[in-house]
């Protein structure tokens, strides 16, 4: 991670707390549900593969959901979500490892642990099917990716630029997300995916993240090559089941 990188204050705060967060002394061993198979099932059923995100709150949204996260997750799956993303970052997103554990016990789709993992020990917080590594934040991406795989995790590497895609590919990533949100000003531009996604090898699973609000946005990202879409606020705001179903329609 480049210490001179300029981030929005909200991102700086997230990173500061992430640096202080520990892990577990006991090394996890995950029995992961196949993410690739989940996407194939969605495609086979005629659904847009959606990774629906259980996100109680965030620095870019107002308010906080008081609903039971397990109930929200179950409604997302009922709406056709191919997989779930669950925040475990507590201070800024209201997430917790306990919520992920309870959600994963309640559903039969793959569950991504979305957090700001910087060190190997932080991998051992809770079992999940996939874990998120953000290329810009990790000093040794190749080493952390390998450590995650040794534990049985599938690894979702998030990128924002062509250079980060190059680093992710060099590290061995085969599930690569392109986030449309600029970390310097938190603005969202769907053209980011259209530009950066072109540098992702066809052999990798390509995910579009952030700013997908409706079916038109979904179609735009799919046309640009997205194998799946990670959607948070547009599903959390309102009825998670109806919102998920709307976005999964081809």
Structural class: alpha/beta
Number of domains: 1
CATH class wording: Alpha Beta
Arithmetic mean pLDDT: 93
Quick overview of this protein structure:
By secondary structure, the chain is α/β, with parallel strands linked by helices.
Give a description of the structure.
The protein has 250 residues and is an alpha/beta fold. The protein has a single domain (34-248), classed as TIM Barrel, CATH 3.20.20.70. It has helices at 9-20, 35-44, 69-78, 90-93, 97-106, 141-150, 162-171, 191-196, 215-223, 233-236, 240-248; strands spanning 50-54, 83-87, 111-114, 130-134, 154-159, 175-179, 205-209, 228-231. The chain has an eight-stranded parallel beta barrel, surrounded by seven helices. α3 crosses α5 (97-106), α3 (69-78) packs parallel to α11 (240-248) and α6 packs across α7 (162-171). The chain is globular, with a radius of gyration of 16 Å.
Q: What key attributes describe this structure?
A:
250 residues, alpha/beta, TIM Barrel, eight-stranded parallel β-barrel, 11 helices, 8 strands
What does the secondary structure layout of this molecule look like, with pairings?
Elements: H1 9-20, H2 35-44, E1 50-54, H3 69-78, E2 83-87, H4 90-93, H5 97-106, E3 111-114, E4 130-134, H6 141-150, E5 154-159, H7 162-171, E6 175-179, H8 191-196, E7 205-209, H9 215-223, E8 228-231, H10 233-236, H11 240-248
Parallel strand pairs: 1-2, 1-8, 2-3, 3-4, 4-5, 5-6, 6-7, 7-8
């Amino acid at each position: 991670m480049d210490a001179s990188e300029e981030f929005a204050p909200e991102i700086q705060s997230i990173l500061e707390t992430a640096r202080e967060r520990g892990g577990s002394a006991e090394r996890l061993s995950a029995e992961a549900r196949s993410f690739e198979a989940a996407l194939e099932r969605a495609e086979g059923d005629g659904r847009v593969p959606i990774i629906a995100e259980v996100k109680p709150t965030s620095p870019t949204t107002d308010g906080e959901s008081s609903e039971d996260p397990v109930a929200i997750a179950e409604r997302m799956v009922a709406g056709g979500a191919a997989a779930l993303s669950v925040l475990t970052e507590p201070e800024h997103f209201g997430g917790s490892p306990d919520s992920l554990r309870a959600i994963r016990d309640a559903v039969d789709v793959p569950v991504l642990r979305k957090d700001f993992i910087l060190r190997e020990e932080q991998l051992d917080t809770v079992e999940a099917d996939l874990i998120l590594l953000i290329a810009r934040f990790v000093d040794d991406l190749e080493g952390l990716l390998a450590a995650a795989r040794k534990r049985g995790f599938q690894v979702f590497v998030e990128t924002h630029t062509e250079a980060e895609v190059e680093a992710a590919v060099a590290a061995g990533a085969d599930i690569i997300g392109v986030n449309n949100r600029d970390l310097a000003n938190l603005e969202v531009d769907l053209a980011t995916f259209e530009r950066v996604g072109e540098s992702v090898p066809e052999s990798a699973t390509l995910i579009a993240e952030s700013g997908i609000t409706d079916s038109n946005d979904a179609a735009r990202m799919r046309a640009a090559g997205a194998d799946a879409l990670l959607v948070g606020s547009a599903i959390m705001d309102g009825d998670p089941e109806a919102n998920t179903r709307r976005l999964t329609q081809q």
